[in-house]
Design brief:
Helix content of chain A: 10-25%
Number of strands of chain A: 8
Shape of chain A: globular
Order of helices and strands of chain A: HEEHEEEEEEH
Largest interface: A-B, 55 and 55 residues
CATH architecture of one domain in chain A: Roll
CATH superfamily of one domain in chain A: Phosphoribosyl-AMP cyclohydrolase
Number of helices of chain A: 3
Oligomer: homodimer
Distance between the termini of chain A: 36 Å
Strand content of chain A: 25-35%
């Protein structure tokens, strides 16, 4: 694939220019924030390498780098819940991506079975901290959908 | 401060439990997605260390770790544009935070002067990639507000 990323020549170009010059970290990754195009809900936080970002831009389907599986990951390849990209943004210093997506299939983005990966809020009462489930029921049963696959969560 | 973070004992506890057991990376950081409580707009993508996350939870005001300045950063300390936290969420494997905030002062979150750090979209037409300014005017003049401070953007 031809190179679509420009050199980060100077700060003014990065912050105020019209050229795409993303910053990939030492592991070759850039974080990606994923929201629902219609509800604006935050669905997930992932990472892209150069190839994933290029595919996401060119094909309009979200691709990520799976840090646990250590491979390119076309979201929804197993579950059918692919993410169609409606808009892509980049931030001021070009080290974070935001994509607005329309989720296909059952419409969930979380491997645990919830619609959003952010299904729990953090509650603080009188110094006691706990998590509260904001999504009450799962959209799908991960054991059915991902049967035989390893859980990507790492401790 | 007493410890408020629990050990990441097993995957079920991390994914399905009610205990806060965030994963900080090798640099001691966890990414934080920041959206506007009313408009749901994505405002910024930052990082928190343990202290910043604890202060954010306990005080209800967003704190980050500034990777460029290498110090705890109470957002808005210079500009007055503090972020009042309305809700905090954590994701499935507890390695990303989402905060919904109400921005004080002039209501902007981007050091370049825009409301959101994500003021440019990525456009792709016939293989040509460019950035489009989605915010047309700055909310404030960064040279006035941050006079004498170093730009945090790094190449």
């Amino acid at each position: 694939m031809p190179k679509i990323f420009l050199p980060r020549s100077d700060i003014e170009f990065v912050e105020e220019g019209k050229g795409l010059a993303p910053k990939f970290d030492k592991h070759g990754l850039i974080p990606a924030v994923v929201t629902d195009n219609k509800t604006n809900e935050l669905l997930m936080h992932g990472y892209m390498n150069k190839e994933a970002l290029e595919l996401t831009i060119k094909e309009g389907i979200a691709h990520y780098w799976s840090r646990s599986r250590k491979k390119l990951w076309k979201k929804g390849a197993t579950s059918g819940m692919t993410q169609i990209v409606k808009d892509i943004f980049i931030d001021d210093d070009q080290d974070a991506i935001w994509i607005k997506v329309e989720v296909q299939g059952l419409g969930a983005s979380c491997h645990v079975g919830y619609r959003s990966c952010f299904y729990r809020s953090i509650q603080s009462h009188n110094g006691k901290i706990s998590l509260k489930f904001e999504e009450k029921t799962k959209v799908f049963d991960p054991e059915e959908v991902y049967s035989g696959s390893e859980n990507p969560t790492q401790l």
